[in-house]
Amino acid sequence: MRYLIVGGGVAGTTAAEELRKRDASAEVTILSEEHHPLYSRVLLPHYMKGKVPRERVFLKRDAWYADQNIELVTGVLATHLDGRNKFVAGSDGREYPYDKLLIATGGEVRSLDEDLRGVSYFRTLDDADQFLQLVTEQGNRARGVVYGGGFIACEYINLFQHFGIPTTVIHRGSHFWTRSLLSEAGELIAKTLNTGGVELHENTSLQSLTGDSELQGIVTSAGEYSATILGVGIGIEPDLSWLRDAGVEVGTGVKASAFLETNVPDVFTAGDIAEFDDPITGRQLQIGNWMNAMSQGRTVTKSMIGERTSFQLVSSYATNVLGLEIIFVGDVERAAAEQIQVIGSVADGGITQVFERGGRIVGGVLIGRNTDRAPITKAIQEKQSFSSLNLL
Ligand SMILES: Cc1cc2nc3c(=O)[nH]c(=O)nc-3n(C[C@H](O)[C@H](O)[C@H](O)COP(=O)(O)OP(=O)(O)OC[C@H]3O[C@@H](n4cnc5c(N)ncnc54)[C@H](O)[C@@H]3O)c2cc1C
Known about the structure:
It is built from 9 helices and 24 strands. By secondary structure, it is of the alpha/beta class. The protein folds into 3 domains: 2-108 and 237-304, FAD/NAD(P)-binding domain (3-Layer(bba) Sandwich), CATH 3.50.50.60; 119-232, FAD/NAD(P)-binding domain (3-Layer(bba) Sandwich), CATH 3.50.50.60; 317-382, FAD/NAD-linked reductase, C-terminal dimerisation domain (Enolase-like, domain 1). Strands 3-2-1-7-17 form a 5-stranded parallel β-sheet. A 5-stranded parallel β-sheet has the order 8-15-9-10-11, with helices on one face. Strand 20 and strand 21 form a beta hairpin. Helix 1 (10-22) runs parallel beside helix 8. The protein binds flavin-adenine dinucleotide (FAD).
């Protein structure tokens, strides 16, 4: 049996490891655009702040792939899929045949049209190294601007604060995470940023960059700001064109059943790229967190070897901005909720939003109230209603 995995992140690598455990004689190949063995994206901010040495970011060594008899092909992009003749073409000109194929390509950062030295993105280890280089080169003259209002924006704010770099944040929404948060929760985050000395401009869009080869500033709908490092965190946008061309059904990601199968026979998907039918919340979800990607990488192998298994996990993502803890659990899409219950307030310094649909809890956002995490996770798993939830 030949298993081909496109994407060497946590979803793809976990799947490769599981396939090897279950089938000692199978051919297992990972095609990876990046040049590194598996590393932890979660640890990148810790490495950048000097809390974790660079070598500890790596979760696998080159020798591990050899020991496991897993072929890791690095620096190669899958560019074409032929689902009928069962092969993937790589940017190296080679054709990679498969019996079963896993698409675990994660997400590509959405980028600006313009580029200057000082514009920073944050997805990969190379991005992290480049940011550190900018900080080292610029020293006291560094001026940070963060463009975005989500997870990566929070990482940049924390990094700029860590390095003592004056920080301005601009984002287009009326507050952070407008697709999930109500305005009161957004206010709590804004208050935390203001108290932390961050200059915040909401409802503001980036129009252009200034500077010749190096960034000097930005022009926005609210005025001009000086900037030597612009941290861009405006979401991810994977390249789905090669999959669409092959007849794979795509939306914002790769559409999949609860068994993580795509509409093309013997083609499966897992991780950030998967837009799967979630049996727990009863909706198609695309989730971008480590726990989800790793668990899907594990579950999908069962479907790949013929033990069709549906993916069932209430996953969560915990982060913080300037020490304020923020946790997302389950389905936190405002537009898909029928009711959102709010506990706490800005004055209390903590707010939890509980998302309900069909009379049951499907998700929660917890800001400064991390003790709500376990009861909300349990309530989602057990399909409880809000009235049976006991939060302090
Ligand atoms: C800075 C940062 C901090 C984070 N912190 C947290 C956290 O604290 N907690 C948490 O739960 N989650 C966190 N996340 C999110 C988490 O890291 C992701 O959800 C997880 O890594 C997704 O894994 P994946 O394997 O699905 O995709 P990825 O890790 O994106 O891996 C996909 C791989 O496929 C490659 N690829 C893409 N297209 C192709 C192609 N056509 N051919 C070949 N290769 C291709 C990509 O280059 C990439 O290497 C963080 C993410 C970032 C960027």
